[in-house]
Specification:
Structural class: alpha/beta
Shape: elongated
CATH class of the largest domain: Alpha Beta
Number of helices: 6
Distance between the termini: 67 Å
Strand order of the largest sheet: 1-5-4-2-3
CATH superfamily of the largest domain: Rhodanese-like domain
Helix content: 40-55%
Order of helices and strands: HHEHEHEEHEH
Strand content: 5-15%
Number of strands: 5
CATH architecture of the largest domain: 3-Layer(aba) Sandwich
Number of domains: 2
Length: about 140
Amino acid sequence: MEKVLEFVQNNLMYVMLALVSGGMLLWQTVSSSGGNRISPLQATLMLNREDALVIDVRETGEWASGHIPNARHIALGQLEKRLNELEKFKDKPLIVNCQSGNRSSAACSTLKKHGFEKVFNLNGGIGAWREAGLPVTTK
C-alpha cells in the first residue's frame, strides 16, 4: 500500500490525467443516452435502405436557412405537444437532427420516453451533414 501511495505522489500529474480522461469517457457514455449517435453516412444509408424519417428540432429560422431534404420540422420546444404527428412512425427509424447534436439528444430522450424505439441522433447535426457534402434544401 505504501508503494501505491508513493507512486501516486510521485506521478500526481499522470494520475490526474488518467482520472480526468476516464471521467470524460464516462460522461460521454452517460450523456449519449439520448439516442444512438450516427454519422451522416450512416444516416444516408438508413434513409435509403430503411426509409428512415428525419426530424429537425431546430428553431424556424435555423430550419429556413437549410435542412435535410424531406425532413419534418418540429422545434424541440414543440416536440411533446406534437408527438401525435409521429405516432404512425413508431416502427420506423427516426433520425433526429439539430445544429450540432445537443438539442437532438434531448429530443431523442423525449421520443424514447414516449415509446419510440428506433431513435438515432445525427452526430454533429446539420453542420456535419453539410460538411459531408450532403444535400440541403430551403424548400
